[in-house]
Amino acid sequence: MKHTAVAAALLSVSLLAGCRQSPATPATGTQTDFGVLQTLKPGVNDTINTKLKVNVVFVGYRQTPPGQVPTARQVSTQDFREMLPARYDAVNRIPSAYGRTEKTGTSFEFDYNYVFADQAFEDDFFKFAAAAGTKEKLTPQENYFNCQGAPGCETPAGNITRAIDPNNNIVIDALQTENWLADNGARVGVKNGEYTVYLINWYDRPDFKFHSYARLDAKDTDTDTEFGKLPNRRLSAWGGSTRDGKAAQRVWFYDLSANPDPWTAAYDVTNPDVDGDEVADYRMPPIWEYGTRKANIGYGRKVSPDLARVTRYVAINLLFTPSPIYRAALTPPQMPDEIEMDLHVEQGAGAPDPATVLKPQLLQERVQPLQPFAKFKTTLKTTALDGSFADAYKCFFATSFEDICTFDYADIFGEPLFQTSVKELREAYRTTKPGTYRLPAYLFNDGSNSQGGLLGIAYDDGETGTQSFVYSFLTPGLKKFGYGFTDTTVHEIGHHLSLSHPHDGYDSEQDVSYGPSGEFAFVNLGDQSASIMSYNDLSRTFGQFNLDSQYRYLTAAYLNNANAALESVRRAQKASALGSAARNADTLFTQARTKYDALDYLGAAKLAHEGYRAVIDAANAAGVKVEAYKWFENLNGLENLSLKPQAKARYSPTFRPQPGLVIFPEETAYQRKLRLMK
After folding, report:
1. Same domain, yes or no, for 493 and 592?
2. Which of 260, 316, 360, 651 has the greatest number of CB atoms lying within 10 Å of its CB?
3. Looking at the structure, do residues 480 and 573 belong to the same domain, yes or no?
4. Residue 440: cis peptide before it, omega within 30 degrees of 0
5. pLDDT tens profile 41-55
6. pLDDT reported for residue 183
């Protein structure tokens, strides 16, 4: 007993001495009026910066040996190191076009991993491709390439290096190819879920087959029109698909050895300007034309820098880490937890029954993943397209100067329709439950071919770049081509909820907005991805890249609007009442950041939403009301019919590259021609 007591006493002294020698580590974080916070920063518009690994895997390409001059079809990783961005800072593009750059709160530092696939991987992949392919006759575009003009030439054009062999030509399913690459990524050191570009070259192998890719099963939701079977929907790239029961798949492949890409007009290697805008179009010829001495666009070209261009300006800027066009927050700082989609069908005389061209419940199911924590409700109202509303609709598609309805407004075509829509929206909000966001969509079911083929547009408010209305259009001509309302409206609501096209965007390092025109004509390749935001009608839903982006935007929005709400509380001198709630919310945001860095973007957004709601609920309980922004109540000049001078957005009628942020058109005449080509 004595020995035990002495030992216990000595142990106590030892522990006390240890405590004196090693003082407790102070809590990390920043001292605020709410206590020590690690992640929340009251009053600060913060940015979540993360290091993002991007794998670039070369399949069938050979690396330039050290000290050697790169040949036309060899790859030098130096081209990629010089071309690819070190970082990306996402911005809200349309609000920023009104003169003040508005960041989303998401930025990235890239960590590139360059891999050259080994012989075994290449052998297995091209064995898969050959087995998966089905023999197909040449499309009109492939025949055009062989003739460099209208199909029907007896001998191939003299200015191409090699014609496509109709007896050795196959079509491969693009989704199966993407899945094969994703399932075999570990063989080249790629972990599941990492952002990966596969750059493919079959041409330099003895087992080469002329080939293209397709999504032959792609159909319109309402009409069952098989868009995937259209010859100009053949592909040279694909990726971003979601797979049930599988981890997130972040793979995009680009095959320069595929038959010349129809969506970028790569089949025409003779004419420098294919879209007629009097600017030479930079596009990628098929790989066998690189380094040619023939008189075509491949003369003097090397594959390596072009692959780097596609990786930067398509894969990274437009697919992996794009900038949204609108704020994902919708009504900052009070973000909605209920969204009511108001579908207004404006029924023209002689137009088809709306039930045959619109599936409202399916539309809601497809849109909901973009706001996964909001409760959705859809209302459908059908009215006759007549009277003043029909007149406003006609103004939207005025065909001559005499038809213009609003000379005194900046938007000489859309203003009457916008004003009528605003009045209806204001009236609807009078009976709307607080905290509910109304998403107004007008679907014009026209019985006549009153316009040239526009499917839809997601409008902003004309003053702050805030999203306002969704307009979808259907005419007999569009219906005959195969379109209904459901897919178009999902696409336009995708815009409204923030998403951009995968063929136009912004390079933050270079501060350049660009689309498929001029030196960036090749970025139409971005449409060759699993996204209903594409223009090629091959996807019905939002793909993995869309969902990743949206959940990142939401995570940052919840964080920064919680910061804004806490600042309102501080200014109201109620910080002491929210100390515990703020610290608990801070823990959730810190956990969200951990998931965000681990690429679990949905998990991050979920925790961030919980943290945000904790702050908002505590603020309301303390008597501090956090107001939602209502753009329709803050419009200048709507009643007195005069446009205020500060409302001047940078709008571009073309997709030509421009410094800074601009508002690009929904589509150009050339894009419409491409989309409506059979």
Report:
1. no
2. 260
3. no
4. no
5. 999 999 999 999 999
6. 97
Please check whether residue 408 lies inside any domain of the structure: yes
Q: Are residues 483 and 385 in the same domain?
A: yes
| CATH number for the domain that contains residue 431 | 3.40.390
Residues 378 and 457 in one domain: yes
- Pairing label, strands 210-214, 436-445: unpaired
Instruction: Tell me the two tokens of residue 44.
Output: 């600060």
- pLDDT band at 167, cuts 50/70/90? very high
**Residue 432 and residue 348 in one domain:** yes
Beta bridge partners of 170: 135, 211
**Do 335 and 449 fall into the same domain?**
yes
Quote the pLDDT of residue 246: 86
What region, left, alpha or beta, does residue 199 occupy, with left being phi > 0 and alpha being psi -120 to 50 degrees?
A: beta
The range of the structural domain enclosing residue 365 comes to: 329-497
Residues 434 and 555 reside in one and the same domain: no
Q: Do the domain assignments include residue 138?
A: no
Give the count of beta carbons closer than 10 Å to the beta carbon of residue 302.
18
CA dihedral 97, 99, 105, 108 (to 10 degrees): 70
- Three-state DSSP class for residue 342: strand
Q: Which of 263, 96, 97, 90 is nearest to 652 (CA)?
A: 97
Is residue 303 a contact partner of residue 75, using CB atoms and an 8 Å limit? yes
The answer to whether residues 370 and 467 belong to one domain is: yes
DSSP string, 577-621: GGHHHHHHHHHHHHHHHHHHHTT-HHHHHHHHHHHHHHHHHHHHH
Average pLDDT over residues 481-494: 98
- The reply to whether 230 falls in a domain is no
**Cα–Cα distance, 573 to 14 (Å, whole number):** 47
The DSSP code for 633 is G
Contact 39/48 with Cβ under 8 angstroms?
Answer: no
Res. 23 pLDDT band, cuts 50 70 90 = very low
250: three-class secondary structure by DSSP:
coil
Residues 285, 265: Cα–Cα separation, whole Å? 9
- pLDDT tens readout for residues 191-223: 999 999 999 999 999 999 999 999 999 999 999
- Exposed, middle or buried by CB within 10 Å (0-12, 13-18, 19+), for 467? buried
Q: Binning pLDDT at 50, 70 and 90, where does residue 27 land?
A: low
User: What does the pLDDT read at residue 498?
Assistant: 98
How many Å apart are CA 663 and CA 668, to the nearest integer? Answer: 13
> What tokens does 590 get?
């810190």
**Least confident interval from 1-10, 271-280, 501-510, 519-528:** 1-10
CB-based contact 663:649 (threshold 8 Å): yes
Give me 402's structure tokens.
């005499």
Residue 333 lies in a domain: yes
User: Could you read off the pLDDT of 625-637 as tens digits, one per residue?
Assistant: 999 999 998 886 5
Among 594, 614, 633, give the residue marking a domain's end. 633
Dihedral pair phi/psi, residue 606, rounded to 5° = -65, -50
pLDDT of 645 above 60: no
User: First and final CA of the chain: distance in angstroms?
Assistant: 97
Whether 252 and 197 have beta carbons less than 8 Å apart is answered as yes
- Helices 579-597, 601-621: inter-axial angle, 10-degree rounding: 170
**Lowest-pLDDT choice from 19-23, 59-63, 254-258, 339-343:** 19-23
Number of domains present in the structure of the chain: 2
Which residues, 6+ apart, have CB-to-CB distance to 117 below 8 Å?
57, 58, 59, 60, 125, 187, 188
List the 505-507 sheet strands across, edge first.
505-507, 512-514, 658-659
Last residue of a domain, one of 633, 655, 673: 633
User: Distance between CA 181 and CA 243 in Å, rounded?
Assistant: 14
- pLDDT score of 17: 36
Q: How far apart are CA 486 and CA 77, in angstroms?
A: 44
